[in-house]
Amino acid sequence: MAEQSNLKEFTKGFFLYNPLFVLILGLCPSLAVTTSVKNGMAMGGAATFVLVSSNFIVSLIRPYIPREIRIPCFIVIIASFVTMVELLMKAYLPPELNASLGIFIPLIVVNCIILYRAESFAYKNRLLVSVLDGVGMGLGWALSLCIVSAIREVLGAGTFLGLKVSESYNPASVMIMAPGAFIALGLLLGFFNWQKQRKSEKALKEYRKYD
Amino acid sequence: MIKEIALIIVSVVFVNNFVLSKFLGLCPFIGVSQRTSSAMGMGMAVTFVMTLASAMTWLVYNYILLPGDTNIVAYIFPSVGESGLIEVLKTISYILVIATLVQLVEMMLRKMVPALYESLGIYLPLITTNCAVLGVALLNTTDSPRELGFLQAIVQGFGAGIGFTVAMLLMSGIRERLALVSIPQPLRGIPIAFICTGLMALAFFGFSGMVQ
Predict the structure, then answer these.
(1) What domain count does chain B have?
(2) Proportion of chain B above pLDDT 90, given as a percent
(3) Neighbour-count burial of B88, counting CB atoms closer than 10 A to its CB (0-12 exposed, 13-18 middle, 19+ buried)
(4) B70 is in which domain, residue-wise?
(5) Do B186 and A197 lie within an 8 Å CB cutoff?
(6) Tens of pLDDT along A144-179?
(7) Is there a domain that residue B211 lies in?
(8) B52 is a domain residue
(9) Which residues of chain A have pLDDT under 70?
């Protein structure tokens, strides 16, 4: 039973409570850095690291954090990990990747997903579940970043991970600029809503059959 | 001087609008733009905090983080004067300054201008995690393409807030209309808001090239 619920905490971030497509959190970086799949993956990795570490620490010291000042405490914890990630990325990743992520690495501090998971999950749950929740939510967000960036890179630059998709395709560069980001995410959210509605209609039909 | 200030404001309101071309502050932009009145309240609150935060973070950057003679920490720890604290303390100090500022503004408004406090209400505490505020602080100091003076930083913060308010008001006007028309079921609510934002961003592209 316990194992099953652990697994559930881990997988819920991918589909059922996907941070971007279902909870609609962490919008700014999801649109700003998704011009190419490589950027999306780097951003997803950095945010996952911060989310897992902050969930770990918050869950570890939660008996010692007074309720009244919990938000400033969370922010300081998150900001420390963001600084670490920033320094690590500067040291080990190519400079042009760092340049294209720009101010969105320090802006992970105000990414709503991380504060939201600290406040609503890690502050209330045991260590292991909190870490699993962080890993699941972080990877779920990274996955959705990859989906958005794959669509934008293929349509807007005609490449996937830097490789050309087709010789004859003439890329529509509006997709890698600001308007394309909004429209792509809008249509994606619409698609996921449509899926959800179809599923609930199907369930309703099943239910009526036995009625 | 006046020309430069006007240039910064036009640049940050229209050409490099924070919401529509820099993707900053999207959560409140989508979350509180259903009604014009709440959009106005949020915009005003953000502009207020952004202006103050620009001033405070500029001071922190120039007198605490930056290496050199102006660093006041260097009087106590001389080694800080050579290395500076930008790399390690940038994020933490900025977010703490902003969080404290929001808290202070909230307390001051409640005591001094209760009417304004009532109208801003729940939007004030939300501003701490608005990435536009931290974004403008970073763009004024560490990630600025050129060095900004104190006044320019404040003007840029104020202008960014005005740009945010303009985008919020436009969006709330569109969404009030959208509530009345028939839209395919799955696109209702947030998806159509995003598509409209995309079209607005396309329209704002017309301003690009106006200011370098």
Answers:
(1) 1
(2) 40
(3) middle
(4) 9-204
(5) yes
(6) 999 999 999 999 888 888 788 888 888 888 888 889
(7) no
(8) yes
(9) 1-4, 211
In a domain, B167, yes or no: yes
Compare CB distances from B201 to A27, A103, A178 and report the shortest one's residue. Answer: A178
pLDDT tens digit string along B12-65? 999 989 999 889 988 888 888 888 888 888 888 899 899 999 999 999 999 888
CB interface of A with B, residues 130-169, below 8 Å:
none
ipTM of the complex: 0.87
* Cα distances (Å, whole numbers) of residue B10 to A43, A110, B129: 31, 27, 26
For chains A and B, what is the number of CB pairs under 8 angstroms?
126
Q: What is the CB neighbour count within 10 angstroms for residue B207?
A: 17
Q: Give the list of residues 6+ apart from residue A17 with CB closer than 8 angstroms, or none.
A: A23, A137, A140
**CB-based contact A180 B138, cutoff 8 Å:** no
Report CB contact under 8 Å: B131, A111: yes
Give the Cα separation of B164 and B156 in Å (integer). 12
When scoring A182, A196, A201 by the number of chain B Cβ atoms within 10 A, the one with the most, hence best to mutate, is A182
CA distances from B92 to A67, A74, A76, A106, B139 (A): 21, 12, 7, 9, 16
Query: Which of B128, B190, B194, B196 is best to mutate for the A interface (most A CBs within 10 A)?
Result: B194
Of A106, A112, A180, the CB nearest to B90: A106
Three-state DSSP class for residue B69: coil
Which residues does B106 contact at the CB level (< 8 Å), separation at least 6?
A: B117, B124, B125
